[in-house]
Design brief:
620 residues; alpha/beta; 7-stranded mixed sheet; 36% helix
């Protein structure tokens, strides 16, 4: 969709930074809040992004920037879902290319502004950052307040409580603003959620026992998170307290946009391009956010339906999610078997070890998590699941390049970690048929863990195989040419690899075999036999190329004394920016054109082909 020009409302247009905001008369702040919301609804509906969370914190962000002097005072936002109002008030008002290549990041970004303290958009980290910043200022004699803004959903993460334990034990003046809207991606779960619900029902200003005060933190609240005057007063009190203080602000997610406020399923947490009047998609693009509003053939949707079908067949199958029931497709199973689906909050470590316990108890847990988030639970996968050879299946959604969410969300690190885990079998389906097939095979494994990688994309058309050989699928074989190149396509790279193979044959006279290994680990011995029969092996994967599947193939060839050279194509060893998935893959050389170029370049290192009669033929 082409970038649109958005009219900046008059008050907002006069704000180039927080200093201008602090100069505004109090009576104009309500108008400014309305302008911010109006602009956000128009701009985010046109580009996609995190709309509901940003609308809910407009007044809170105004109050924060009026009381504190950013960037001298550090304001650390957890995750960054609520960052858009903050961006607008810190001089970034060009939203025409939000989350698009060359435009503003959808999260906090230190390269964009000195007002953004962290880039990381993984949840439950703000309190640890704040604790560290406060310690650094105490050691160096630095000045300025340290403020952490964290949602009730992010407070379900164990890391937040580790930080809270340290903050409460010290006297350093860390101010913790709890943005309590009762939701993360969905209604917040657990005992803390119940506790905050009880606190929300208490009269404002009345001192009531609560978990924060019991830990030794000063507590101010609960406050109306949309009353700028009261918020400013509370934040000034917290600053003057001189010690660790919690300001509990109760907000409404999606405030000011009726469709978002009334939404029970949280479709407006993160959106694609939609009509602001109806909330309906007006673009064929894959949705920009976390929930699955794409057609039935999105990978997430195929997985959700497939798991439900297996759960109907087997009573021992249970599902686990870390506060992402709908984004990972588990809501379908939860609707039918609510007693067998467990949302543990934003707590990936607990999710994995809890799954280990369920497997010890005779169940087969399926842990559905974004690929980028599983790295937070690597120790648990290694020591709590794999060491015990437990039958737990991990489904890694958003594996590979995710597109507009940027460097913290690209799923390009999981294989580099998971291939180190002894006994873990990893699969990568190339289409919806193979996803259903491989998921069934994975949950049938009873002597160790399994994992499936699926991308953030539409599953596309089924890709049939010519033959299946020892569990691998042969997708293409040149019948009229020598066996020059073995192209190994990992999962969703298969369409580009097939296109490259056909063009290499028709345009360059280079014969090839294209194979989909289906199961990546352990490396199939039959793959080595195929490698030995070709003059060149090229692996293609939507993952970091230096620690991915191609590395395993190359090592297996070395171990098996296979002398065929192996070239690995994959993502570069870098943090990739946000941008269209197809464009980022092309830039990494993972489209058909890039694969062809790499294969042609590799021929220069090959020796001439020796025929049985001794004649030496150059590379075609």
């Amino acid at each position: 969709m082409p970038a649109a020009d958005f009219r900046i409302p008059p008050l907002l247009a006069g704000i180039t930074g927080p200093q201008d905001l602090r100069a505004l008369p109090t009576g104009e702040l309500v108008v400014l809040a309305e302008e911010l919301r109006s602009f956000l609804i128009e701009a985010v509906c046109a580009s996609g992004g995190h709309l509901g969370p940003s609308l809910g914190v407009v007044e809170l962000v105004i109050a924060l920037h009026r009381v504190f002097d950013s960037p001298r005072d550090a304001i650390v936002f957890d995750i960054g879902h609520q960052a858009y109002a903050h961006k607008l008030l810190t001089g970034r008002q060009d939203f025409t290319a939000l989350r698009q290549e060359g435009g503003l990041s959808g999260y906090l970004c230190r390269a964009e502004s000195a007002h953004d303290v962290v880039d990381n958009s993984h949840a439950s980290t703000a309190l640890s950052y704040a604790d560290g910043l406060a310690k650094a200022r105490a050691v160096t004699g630095g000045t300025g307040a340290v403020v952490a803004v964290i949602g009730d959903g992010a407070l379900t993460g164990g890391m937040a409580w580790e930080a809270l334990d340290n903050i409460a034990a010290a006297s350093r003046p860390v101010i913790i603003v709890v943005n309590d809207n009762g939701r993360s991606y969905a209604p917040t779960t657990g005992a803390l959620a119940r506790h905050l619900t009880r606190l929300r029902g208490c009269p404002p200003g009345r001192a009531v026992p609560n978990v924060f005060s019991h830990l030794g933190l000063a507590y101010i609240g609960p406050l109306d998170g949309h009353d700028i005057g009261r918020l400013e007063e509370a934040l000034r009190r917290a600053r003057a307290a001189g010690g660790p203080t919690v300001v509990h602000a109760v907000t409404a997610k999606g405030k000011g946009y009726q469709l978002a406020e009334a939404d029970e399923i949280d479709h407006f947490h993160a959106i694609g391009v939609i009509d602001p009047a109806t909330g309906q998609p007006i673009s064929d693009a894959h949705p920009a956010g976390h929930h699955d509003t794409a057609a039935a053939q999105s990978w997430t949707s195929v997985f959700g339906r497939s798991l439900l079908a297996l759960a109907r067949e087997r009573e021992d199958i249970v599902a686990v999610t870390a506060s992402m029931l709908r984004p990972t497709g588990l809501h379908r199973m939860a609707d039918v078997f609510p007693e067998r689906v467990f949302d543990v909050g934003i707590a990936e470590q607990h999710a994995v070890t809890s799954a280990a316990g369920m497997a010890m108890g005779g169940l087969h847990p399926v842990v559905a998590v974004y690929a980028t988030f599983l790295s937070r639970a690597f120790d648990q996968v290694l020591m709590d699941v794999a060491l015990h050879r437990l039958p737990v299946t991990f489904v890694l959604d958003r594996a590979g390049v995710t597109g507009p969410d940027g460097p913290s969300h690209h799923g390009m690190w999981d294989l580099g970690l998971l291939t180190l885990v002894p006994g873990l079998r990893i699969a990568a389906p190339r289409d919806a048929v193979r996803l259903r097939e491989l998921l069934r095979e994975a949950v049938a494994v009873g002597d160790g863990p399994t994992a499936l990688r699926i991308p953030k994309a539409t599953a596309g058309s089924d890709i049939p195989h010519l033959a299946r050989m020892d569990g691998m699928d042969i997708l293409h074989r040149s019948l009229c040419r020598p066996l020059d190149v073995l192209l190994i396509a990992m999962g969703p790279t298969a369409p580009a690899v097939l296109q490259a193979a056909r063009r290499l044959e028709s345009e360059e006279g280079i014969g090839s075999t294209v194979v989909d290994p289906r199961w990546l680990t352990p490396v199939n011995p039959a793959l080595l036999h195929l490698a030995a029969r070709h003059r060149l092996v090229v692996t293609v994967e939507d993952h970091h190329r230096t620690r991915g599947f191609g590395t395993l193939v190359a090592q297996a060839c070395t171990d098996g004394a296979i002398t065929t050279p192996v070239h690995n194509l994959g993502l570069p060893p870098a943090f990739l920016p946000h941008g269209p998935r197809s464009r980022l893959l092309a830039q990494a050389g993972l489209d058909a054109e890039g694969i062809i170029t790499s294969v042609l370049r590799a021929h220069t290192a090959l020796p001439p082909h020796v025929l049985p009669d001794g004649r030496r033929l150059p590379w075609p």
